[in-house]
Amino acid sequence: MRDVLPELAEHWRAGRPVAVATVVSTSSSAPRPAGTSMVVLPAGDVLGSVSGGCVDGDAYEQATEVLRSRAPVLRHYGVSDSNAFAVGLTCGGTIEVFTQYVDAESAPWFGEVADAVAAGTPVAVATVVADREPGRVGRCLVVSPDTGLDVGGLGSVRLDEAVARAADGLLRDGASGTLTFGPDGEQGDATRVFVWTAMPAPRMLVFGANEFATALAGMGSFMGYRVTACDARPVFATPSRFPAADEVVAKWPHRYLAEESEAGRLDDRTVICVLTHDPKFDVPVLEVALRLPHVAYVGAMGSRLTHTDRLDRLREAGLSEGQLARLSSPLGLDLGARTPAETAVSIAAEILALRSGASGARLSAHSGPIHRDADWSPAQIDARLIGAGVCR
């Protein structure tokens, strides 16, 4: 949804109705994650994709019918059978796609959602995609804990309350998924609700101003991070050196990192990459980084010898073995990378593997699932929150 949201908002504000097809559940090797959307305009133009090609044609036909009838549709797509022309996923996965009519009358809250996403404010949109009462299907509830935004409704006050709590949990987890409830918000499976969440982009802090840092900034931007490049030397810390970065800061790295932490602008999705190659820069910033209680990743570039020397210096600075164990050094996966671009791929691959809990091994070397499912019941949401130490 996020990829097509700006253009979707433009059509909404212009009073042009659209049909939005969204992946609401996946299993096995589904090509696109939950929350991926395709928009079909009245003139027949298409924005986005729900499958990368294999079922987009049928999803398009469903969307054109929804534009005509205004009635929402939930459609299941699975593995193709012996009929070579059957609609299905040859990759072996299954997806469900919910298609709904969207205009200013059916979704008066849409402008607030688009504004929240543009401002980097966490927001969730919960939509009933299946229910024993057909009149509930397509109803939406919009929740934004940071702003107190709570508009729309799903047909039951208790259901709204239960879904809002679960949506808050998904926002904390940075995930979208389908939840099941009883008709009044209790445990059950009579009502299926898809919750799409939008969080501010996670941050990538790149310390150092060299060719490797420039390449990594570009890769981080490509991955969806909000990238900050920082170096103590103003002559090197320039926008022209980091065209893909969202901001470039000329400041001592350890001071900048400490300031960002004290201001509350770092979280458990933040990744920190130190590419300075100079102990007077990288040791102080790593000392600050490894003392931070909640960041996703701290990595540093350098040879094995540099790594050993760096650890000794950090121990002298008072860091514990537990804190040092959080350091990825040399950073990146063993891909044989040499050039700045190849090294950026190596670093990005390590960050992605750690973020998803994957092994980083070749997919052809094992037979496990390629993708992970994202359908949770309220009980599973509660379990995830309890495991993360979050109380509601």
From TrEMBL:
Record InterPro entries: MoCofactor_Util/Proc, XdhC_CoxI, XdhC_Rossmann_dom
Coiled coil: none
Domain XdhC- CoxI as annotated: residue spans: 12-78, 117-182
Family matches, as Pfam families: XdhC_C, XdhC_CoxI
Protein name (Swiss-Prot/TrEMBL): XshC-Cox1 family protein
Positions of the XdhC Rossmann domain: 204-351
